[in-house]
UniProtKB/TrEMBL annotation:
Entry keyword set: DNA-binding, Transcription, Transcription regulation
Transmembrane domains' residue ranges: none
UniProt feature coiled coil, ranges: none
Domain HTH hxlR-type: 13-110
Protein name: Winged helix-turn-helix transcriptional regulator
PANTHER family found in the cross-reference section: TRANSCRIPTIONAL REGULATOR, MARR FAMILY (PTHR33204), TRANSCRIPTIONAL REGULATORY PROTEIN (PTHR33204:SF18)
SUPFAM superfamilies: Winged helix' DNA-binding domain (SSF46785)
Pfam family, one: HxlR
Length: 169
């Protein structure tokens, strides 16, 4: 397991040290998008609604802490995409837990589930669990096919359209 220099040497508390890396809204939203397959700066900015400076800062910090890596996808102008490292993927259960908690405690039932996860192996909806209710297999992110609800897909598309309008106006 690759480790990075400790940012908060004043404590041995793993929660405090973890929060030094991922303890703000913008960083967690960037990670959410990376788990959803978004890898390019503009789309990360659109879906997180972060300013370019804020997003650049979070991406640099995630890279410095070994959570992501930059990979060029265009040479002129030089553009990068961002990919999760093994350490970045190891944070996924935290996002999954936040999702489950948020679905249960932060939304009205009428809103429905934003993203359903289907177990690739047996086709069952795993709901908010990390064990498939159909076949009993423990599931990791790679075992699941995300299905975005129409409401959430519309919300994401509206953010994209608003961003494009701001760029043109």
């Amino acid at each position: 397991m690759a480790r990075v220099a400790v940012e908060n040497p004043d404590t041995v508390c793993p929660v405090a040290r973890s929060l030094d890396i991922v303890g703000d809204k913008w960083t967690v939203l960037v990670l959410r998008e990376l788990y959803m397959g978004v890898s390019r700066f503009e789309e990360l900015q659109i879906q997180t609604e972060a300013t370019p400076q804020m997003l650049a800062g979070r991406l640099k910090a995630l890279e410095a802490n070994g959570m992501i890596e930059r990979h060029p996808y265009n040479e002129k102008p030089l553009r990068y995409e961002y990919r999760l490292t093994r350490k970045g993927w190891a944070f996924y259960p935290v996002i999954y837990a936040l999702r489950a908690w948020g679905e249960g405690w932060c939304k009205d039932e009428s809103e429905g589930v934003a993203v359903r996860f289907i177990h690739r192996e047996c086709g069952a909806d795993v709901g908010l669990a990390n064990v498939c209710p159909n076949c009993g297999a423990p599931v990791a992110r790679d075992d699941l096919q995300p299905v975005v609800s129409s409401h959430y897909a519309k919300e994401r598309e509206e953010r994209r359209a608003a961003f494009k309008d701001r760029q043109q106006g």
